[in-house]
Specification:
The structure holds two protein chains of two kinds.
Chain A lengths: L1 E10 L2 E11 L4 E5 L6 H8 L7 E6 L2 E2 L4 H7 E4 L11 H11 L4 H14 L15 H13 L5 E5 L7 H14 L4 E5 L3 H7 L2 E6 L2 E6 L1 H8 L3 H13 L1
Parallel strand pairs in A: 3-8, 3-9, 6-7, 7-8
Antiparallel strand pairs in A: 1-2, 1-4, 4-5, 9-10
Chain B lengths: L1 H16 L2 H19 L11 H4 L2 H13 L1 H9 L1 H5 L6 H21 L2 H10 L4 H28 L3 H17 L3 H8 L4 H10 L1 H9 L5 H25 L3
Helix pairs in contact in B: 1-7, 2-4, 4-9, 4-10, 5-9, 7-9, 7-14, 9-10, 9-13, 9-14, 13-14
């Protein structure tokens, strides 16, 4: 469902993404790992058609991110790292705006809206202004926004950042429930999360892919915990 | 169309969910009334609104950029632009949605000057055609300033910088056509060039429209000006949305 081929992106003299290629199929949860500034968010932003790549191509559900950005965006649910939202709006008004933008109408709109609100447990803050919400609730509203149209592909940039342990558990359960019918990419620094929900892990540093395997295989290959694997790969090969 | 409608609806509502709309309306209505009466509305002893309309370009030089400065600068500052442009909305739909929402808000502001019309109608028998022409001219000038404001709002993620640049650009467009500026230019520029500057300015087109002459050249001037600045906004956003 996602095919990335030699994707490149530079910001001035800084090479953020340097020839990244991989594919993700339906039913896979890909954990995108890497140190800060490795290029994870940039790859995700390019997949979500927010950034235009300087080289290479990518396809999401058969649509090219450069030629058919609108179709790509229709098929993905994207949660950005800083959870952007219109803070002066209430949660309800914000989600209704997302429905408007995605062309959801009538009975289906109400069903999807109710489902997303229930899944993300935000009914208690539905009428509250977003700027008054805690970090955890803001992230849940962001998740609801990404899930509302029941997309085939989910791209979640650090979806559990700032959540308390209970909320983290809930989000992981939510992602696990959706695994079968969706293709999911999540970036995270929490390696236990990768072991808990990801069927595959890609480690990226300085814009290049350093490892692409399952969390289990990585642990077996390096004969240590995933955290140590991460340190070994990102410090040795990047240096 | 879906994207345009969604952005338009959200943007228009957002004026009224923040104090912006109310502050803008109070300041606009106060000064539009104050300047009209200060400049001899009663003393003129004429049942028309020329004293009201003549202040509009100067009032809008400051007020319209204030309403426009947040349009894109705020989106970029808060990062919500990343949400907007990862939804199935094109840059063109978003730019037009925001512009028309702001323009309709200006319609609302102008509509709230209705007591002025009632006063004039009560005091005498004004030329209704002239009143309508004045309102049309004012709406067009507000649209022109908004388009300029949109562009500078997209240019910087700092609302103050956007505001200052918009005010300067709008002031240049207005003052270039003022008689005093024209007289000054005519001392060292050839007549053709002075005429060209005057044609490019808001003031000449606005004056001829509010005199009741709705000519094609004046309306097309505003439409081309608005379309040009809006198109430039789209280009800037496409290039710099992630910066």
């Amino acid at each position: 469902m996602i095919k990335i081929k030699e994707l490149k992106k530079t910001f001035g003299s800084i090479v953020a993404v340097d020839g990244v290629s991989f594919e993700v199929q339906k039913g896979q949860v890909l954990g995108f790992l890497g140190p800060n500034g490795a290029g994870k968010s940039t790859v995700m932003r390019m997949l979500a058609c927010f950034l235009r790549p300087d080289g290479g191509t990518a396809e999401v559900c058969g649509y090219d991110i450069i030629k058919n950005p609108i179709q790509v965006r229709q098929n993905i649910g994207y949660l950005a790292e800083n959870v952007p939202a219109y803070s002066d709006m209430s949660v309800g008004a914000f989600l209704n705006f997302i429905c408007d933008a995605r062309g959801l109408e009538g009975k289906r709109r109400n069903e999807l809206l109710d489902k997303a609100v229930a899944m993300c447990h935000i009914s208690s803050v539905y009428h509250q202004t977003i700027e008054t919400l805690s970090k955890g609730y803001k992230r849940r509203v962001g998740l609801a926004q990404a899930l509302i149209h029941d997309p085939k592909v989910l791209i979640l940039d650090e979806p559990t950042d700032g959540l308390d342990p209970n909320q983290k558990h809930e989000v992981r359960q939510l992602i696990s429930k959706m695994t079968e019918e969706k293709c999911i990419i999540i970036s995270t620094h929490i390696l236990e999360e990768v072991e808990a929900i990801c069927t595959r892990a890609i480690i990226i540093a300085k814009g290049k892919i350093l490892a692409d395997s399952t969390p289990g295989e990585l642990k077996t290959k390096y004969n240590c915990s995933l955290e140590e694997v991460f340190r070994k790969i990102t410090t040795a090969k990047v240096a | 169309m879906t994207g345009f409608k969604a952005v338009f609806k959200r943007e228009f509502k957002s004026y009224f969910t923040t104090p912006l709309a109310y502050v803008f309306l109070v300041v606009f209505l106060f000064f539009s009334g104050y300047l009209t009466f200060k400049q001899g509305f009663f003393e003129a002893r004429q049942a028309d609104m020329s004293a009201f309309f003549m202040n509009m370009p100067l009032l809008f030089v400051f007020l319209v950029p204030a309403a426009a400065m947040r349009l894109w600068a705020e989106e970029r500052k808060t990062g919500s632009i990343e949400l907007l442009f990862t939804l199935p909305i094109t840059v063109r739909q978003a730019v037009l949605g925001k512009f028309f929402a702001a323009w309709v808000f200006m319609f609302v502001a102008m509509a709230m000057t209705f007591p002025m019309v009632i006063t004039v109608c009560y005091l005498g028998s004004p030329d209704i055609g002239l009143l309508i022409a004045g309102y049309v001219a004012t709406i067009f000038i507000a649209g022109g300033f908004l388009a300029v404001g949109c562009f500078f709002s997209a240019l910087s993620n700092n609302q103050v910088i956007s505001f200052v640049l918009s005010v300067v650009a709008c002031a240049v467009l207005v003052f270039a056509g003022m008689p005093t500026t024209m007289n000054y230019f005519s001392t060292f520029l050839p007549a053709g060039l002075v005429q060209a500057i005057s044609t490019m300015s808001f003031q000449g087109h606005f004056d001829s429209m509010q005199r009741g002459v709705l000519e094609f050249k004046d309306i097309s001037y505003f439409i081309i000006l608005i379309a040009g600045w809006i198109a430039a906004t789209g280009v800037i956003l496409d290039e710099r949305k992630a910066n």
